[in-house]
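Sat 14:20. Reprocessing the chain from the morning session after the first attempt stalled halfway. Input below, unchanged.
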Amino acid sequence: MSNITVAQRIRQIRETHGMTLEQLATKIDVDPSTLSRYESTDTRKIAVSVIQRICSAVGITLPDFFRGMEEPKYQAVPELDQFLGFDEIVLLNRIRHLPPPLKKQFLQHLDYLEYLKKQGGLSID
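Finished this time. Tokens:
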């Protein structure tokens, strides 16, 4: 499955799960014409949230969606100027599934790492 586009992957997943375009569009709460555009256009501006909804609708994980593809760079949130790589997408997906107390603890660890970096006590090589 290497070197396929996101558009091809969306169509492949939909067809593998025996869904019509209208059925998947309804499940992910988009207009069928929008989903058709996602399936037919090699765009890199499909929000990760849309891809996550597709994954949820068919019962796969975000890493499963990208498995075997070249490293994707998709704009996660339209307002952001930066694009996320596969590692960042996987990290965000894993954080998203943590229970709230662990999310809070994870953020505290990040704050501590930033503090160490500012103090010169954290070497990033």
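The radius of gyration is 17 Å.
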